[in-house]
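Re: that chain you flagged

S.,

Sorry for the slow reply, it's been a week of failed gels. I finally had a moment to sit down with the sequence you sent. For the record, here it is as I used it:
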Amino acid sequence: MQLDISESSLPVFEALASPTRLKIIYLLSQNKMNIKELANELHMSSAIVTRHIKQLEEANIIKTEKAPGKSGLQKVSSLAIDNIKIQFPIKLFHQYQIHKMDLPVGHYTDYHVAPTCGLATLTDCIGKVDEPKYFMDAGRMDARIIWFTQGYLEYKIPNLLHENETPHLLEISLELASEFPFSNNVWPSDITFFINNKNVGTWTCPGNFSDIRGKYNPDWWDINNSQYGLLKYIRISEHGTFIDGEKLSDVTLDQLSLSNDLITFRIAVLEDAKHVGGATIFGKGFGNYDQDIEIKLYYSNVEDED
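Prediction finished late last night. Pasting the structure tokens below so you have them in one place:
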């Protein structure tokens, strides 16, 4: 589960703000349990435990299902997630100006992908799933989610820098998961990023997530499919290349040839990667973040530096 600092995340924070509910989470991490079993372990009444269980269910931290028991069907609770990540607001380089661009996920200019693969708009899949030829369909421009097991997508981004502007940091943010038929919450994948044909580093995505429904997914999108990704920030500066503050490589901004009119950005799962677990790219209308691929180029004017 991935959260941000907003009111929509409050049910989770409130659910965790209780020693009793934390004990319930711990107990359910060991075994599935019913209300009576939890009440015995906690030395509480079933009525009180039921209230705590309801709050954890509303926060999507646990789930309760009917299962066979000694006296017929009974309600059994279990954990619905295995980790929670909190994304804090990020503000960098206030003294710099910014060129900002939003790049829809379907606006790639080159590709080579292997099944499982596919792409979808807000209303339907484009062509047949697992047939790479549909990645050249004209409808791809409207795609809001794309997935592939191995290969790459490449985007061309206009370089909006003027002659009198000095770049200081290139930031690319996007929502990513690995790729598995339907989904698999534990499915690592080595996703490699290239900028202007320069390999800037590889990040291992932990899984293809479906423990809870993505916030923005359209109703027609099956709950068994990949539901959301992790919002990642790739930043290249004079100090190297970083993803969410962790160093990916020693590639610096001056190695990226930003004097050209276009910037190429490639997302790849290489054939010889240790974990060939695919990639899923979420755009507006899918996943947990209502955004496309966002590019920010922080710069200063030459006259400001004198």
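What I noticed first: The CA atoms of residues 176 and 251 lie 22 Å apart.

Talk soon,
D.
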